[in-house]
Specification:
D-Maltodextrin-Binding Protein, domain 2, nine-stranded mixed β-sheet, 21 helices, disordered N terminus, single chain, alpha/beta, 9 strands, 2 domains
Length: about 475
């Protein structure tokens, strides 16, 4: 069996790679911008408003304190307290805070004032249960840049969309990060990659990877949402943004049998399953093991959100071998017969609990984080995109940013927001088990369509 280094160099034949001779790839395009230290050491900006009455508030964060995003928010917390005197009681709880912490607290009254996560997860776990309040008023809070308010520094499209509106029609989340999805590759592994224009082009890239002895796709089978994403990416190219959610909302399930695009999308997943493209052990490893194996060069491609560079850079830093990744990415291409150019986006933002005891301070803090001098830390330290158009675009995010900025490209919420339908229960009981079975090769694309139509009709009958 060839060593990893030999395999990497063989796959990248014809491309000059520093890593082939020295075991290092040079500066990774996903590294934090040179301004990281400057940001963390810079003076605190003044807030646009000093909340009256509230002396403190509670914030439950989706990040950990030592993550780049957590470091940026830690500075924001310190600065906010220094400038306003308001104490921020923060708990760094990680990605599962909604299901493990916030949702269970809804019935106790011991809820945080402020919390954050992506908009679909907030809708599914908290808003659908009546656990959030409107943050429409935050739009009119000054951010600390003269007379500029939140609505002046955020594009309307970043917060005003159907999936970000509660039963009252008001928005329940204000974004501070904007992730896009992509197919990622490590240039030290793949060499020069021309973005595929068709699904056939994509499979040609995957076949090339297989031929060199590297797994083609690092799929994280531990996360059903990731498996479902492979289907959703193809489906959205056939049916268009918003229409996968419509199919999922059809109480009869008939749409699945009548829309040929949904069947064709299932065929894409079936081809992946039967072609031997997935990394060995993809369905048995615990997250983030497969992602880390991709970072180690064991697979050519991985499809996930724009958080990948930040997470894999942290992993490599902890390994301490000095290796970095020159990231490349491209958008999922149109399958045969598909007519829609789509990019999926994942807005991450702040929400305020319906039972918040200190909502004014929490909302003032949201506006403060959106101050240019604070939010600049996300690209500088975390290598992440923000909704503000006047902040830097990290090198690893340029292809995603271009797709998000393309006026001819349809923008869809990740999975078209189907993971928020019926409080997330539709995806958990109907979609995820079937996309798992399809990706395991246990059912055909036709069986997938038949079963999802049948199970969906039964789901809505039982839900009344």
């Amino acid at each position: 069996m060839r060593s990893t280094k030999v395999v990497l160099c063989a796959l990248a034949a014809g491309v000059l790679l520093a890593g082939c001779g020295q075991g290092t790839s040079g500066t990774g395009a996903g590294d934090p911008a040179p301004g990281a230290d400057q940001f963390l050491g810079a003076d605190c900006p003044d807030p646009g408003v000093r909340p009256g009455g509230d002396k403190e508030f509670t914030y439950w964060s989706m990040w950990t304190a030592d993550e780049p995003q957590g470091r940026v928010l830690s500075k924001a917390i310190r600065c906010f307290t220094d400038k306003t005197g308001v104490k921020v009681n923060v708990q760094w709880l990680g990605r599962d805070l909604l299901t493990q912490n916030v949702a269970p607290a809804l019935t106790t009254g011991a809820v945080p004032d402020l919390f954050d996560q992506d908009v679909s997860q907030v809708m599914a776990a908290v808003t659908s249960a009546g656990g959030t309040q409107s943050v429409q008023d935050v739009l009119d809070i000054k951010v600390g840049e003269g007379d500029l308010k939140v609505r002046d520094v955020l594009p309307v499209s970043s917060y005003d969309f159907p999936q970000n509106k509660g039963p009252d029609g008001a928005i329940f989340e204000v974004p501070y990060l904007l992730y896009g999805t992509a197919w990622w590759y490590n240039r030290d592994v793949t060499g020069l990659v021309t973005a595929p224009r068709t699904a056939d082009d994509l499979f040609a890239l995957l076949d090339k990877a297989k031929a060199t002895g590297v797994a083609a796709v690092a799929e994280d089978g531990d996360r059903p949402v990731s498996n479902a994403s492979l289907f959703a990416q193809a489906a959205l190219r056939y049916v268009g943004a918003g229409n996968l959610a419509k199919a999922a909302s059809d109480k009869t399930g008939a749409t699945w049998r009548t829309d040929d695009g949904l069947y064709q999308a299932a065929g894409f997943v079936e081809k992946l399953a039967k072609g031997g493209y997935l990394i060995p052990g993809w369905d048995s490893a615990k997250y983030p093991a497969v992602q880390q194996r991709w970072a180690n060069g064991e697979a050519a491609y991985i499809t996930t959100g724009g958080w990948l560079p930040s997470e894999t850079n942290q992993y490599l830093d902890k390994k301490g071998d000095g290796r970095t990744i020159p990231y490349g990415s491209f958008q999922f291409p149109k399958p045969t017969g598909a007519t829609h150019d789509v990019i999926e986006r994942v807005p991450v933002g702040f929400a305020v609990s319906a039972k918040a005891k200190n909502p004014n301070a929490a909302k003032a803090f949201i506006a403060y984080v959106l101050n240019k001098d604070i939010l600049a830390g996300m690209p500088a330290v975390a290598g992440a995109l923000t909704p503000r158009a006047d902040l830097a675009v990290p090198p690893s995010q340029k292809d995603i940013k271009a797709a998000l900025s393309n006026s001819s490209t349809e923008q869809a919420i990740y999975l078209d927001g189907v993971n928020a339908i019926a409080g997330g229960r539709w995806a958990e009981t109907v979609l995820y088990p079937l996309t798992d079975s399809l990706l395991h090769g246990n059912i055909t694309s036709q069986e997938f369509i038949d079963q999802i139509a049948t199970h969906q009709a039964a789901f809505y009958r039982s839900a009344g």
